[in-house]
Amino acid sequence: MSDKVQAYTSERAEAAQSEEETEEESVDELQCPECGGSLATDTEHGETVCQDCGLVVDEDSIDHGPEWRAFDSREKDEKSRVGAPTTNMMHDKGLSTNIGWQDKDAYGNQLSASQRQKMQRLRTWNERFRTRDSKERNLKQALGEIDRMASALGLPENVRETASVIYRRALSEDLLPGRSIEGVSTASLYAAARKAGTPRSLDEISAVSRVEKDEIARTYRYVVRELKLEIQPADPEQYVPRFASDLGLSDEAERRARQLLQTAKEQEVHSGKSPVGLAAAAVYAASLLTNEKVTQSEVSEVANISEVTIRNRYHELLEAEESIHMP
Predict the structure, then answer these.
(1) CA 139 to CA 26: how far, in whole Å?
(2) Do residues 89 and 161 make contact, with C-beta atoms less than 8 angstroms apart?
(3) Domain spans, the chain
(4) How is domain 236-325 classified at the architecture level of CATH?
C-alpha cells in the first residue's frame, strides 16, 4: 500500500514541477528578452512588440480570426459561417448532407452485409428528402446537365455559376412550360459563356447538348428577351486565344491575329460576319505572316467551320489590312 502511495506522490510532484516549468515558459514568452518589459500584440501589422524598448519580438504572425469585420452583433451573426460555401451549382446550394458511396467506416474498414444494406436504404431516403418536389427535381436535372456540358466545353467555374443563376431565374419566372429542361439549361450555359467573355459557338454547344441547334438558338433568344439579359454581341477577338492555344501558335501569332481583327473593325469588314469565322481566318492569316505554317483544314477542325468560310474571310481581312497601308 505504501509503495502505491509513494508512486502516486511522486507522480503528483512531477506533474506539479512540469506545470511550474510551463508557467515559467509562458511568463518568459510574455516578457521582452532584452529588457524584461511587457509585450503587446499588434494585430494590424502581425507583430509582437515590447512596450518599453520597442523591440519587435515576433513578426508575420498568423491571424486566426475571420477575414471579415462586424460592427454589431446582428452583422456578426449574418457574416458568421461554417462549412463549405454555398453554391448555385447545386439544387440545394450545397446545404444538405451527402452519404458517400464507399461502404467503409471511419477507420477504412469494410462494412458488413447488413450495414451495407442499411446504408443503401439511408442513401435512397436521403436522395428522396433532398428533392422533395418537382421543382427541385427539375433543378437537380438541369444543373447536372449544365455541369456536364461545361466540363465537356472546358468552361470555368464562374461560367457554370452564372449559368445556374440564369436557369434559376428562368425557373422562378415560369419560363419552362412548353420547353425542355435540356433546351433551357443549354441556352443558359450559352448565355453565361458569352457574358463571361469566354464564348462558345452554337455548333460547339450543340455538339455536347442533347437538343438541336435550332432549338438552342430559339430558346436562347427567348430567355435573353424575357429575363432582359444584357449580352453584348460576340467579339471575334475573344475566340483568338483558344484557337491559337489549340493550334500551338506563338504569342506573336496571337498578337498579329488581334491586330488583323482590330483593322477589320476599323474598316467595318466584320459587320454581318460570323465572329467565329473571322477569328479563325485571322488566326490562319497570322500563322502565315509569322511563318508558323498551319493548314486550313487544321484551323477548320479547331474552329468547327468550313475551309471555304476561312478562305473567304481570310481574303477580306488581308484586303482590309492592305487598304490601311495604301497611300
Answers:
(1) 56
(2) yes
(3) 134-227, 236-325
(4) Orthogonal Bundle (1.10)
Selection from 270, 276, 253, 280 nearest residue 316 by Cα: 270
Grid cell digits, residue 58: 515576433
User: Which CATH superfamily includes the segment(s) 134-227?
Assistant: Cyclin-like (1.10.472.10)
- pTM confidence score: 0.63
Please tell me the distance from the alpha carbon of residue 289 to that of residue 250, in angstroms, as a whole number.
12
- In degrees and rounded to multiples of 5, residue 40 shows phi and psi of -130, 145
- pLDDT (tens place) for every residue of the chain, 327 residues total: 455 545 555 665 565 565 555 444 444 457 888 888 888 887 767 788 888 887 888 877 776 666 667 777 777 766 666 666 777 887 777 677 777 778 888 888 888 888 889 888 988 887 777 777 788 888 889 999 999 999 999 999 999 999 999 999 999 999 988 899 999 999 999 999 999 888 888 888 999 999 999 999 999 999 999 999 988 888 888 889 989 999 998 999 999 999 888 888 887 877 778 888 899 999 999 998 899 888 989 999 988 889 998 898 888 888 877 776 655
Among 126, 130, 123, 197, smallest CA distance to 159 is for: 197
> Which burial class, exposed, middle or buried, applies to 72 when counting CB atoms under 10 A from its CB (0-12, 13-18, 19+)?
exposed
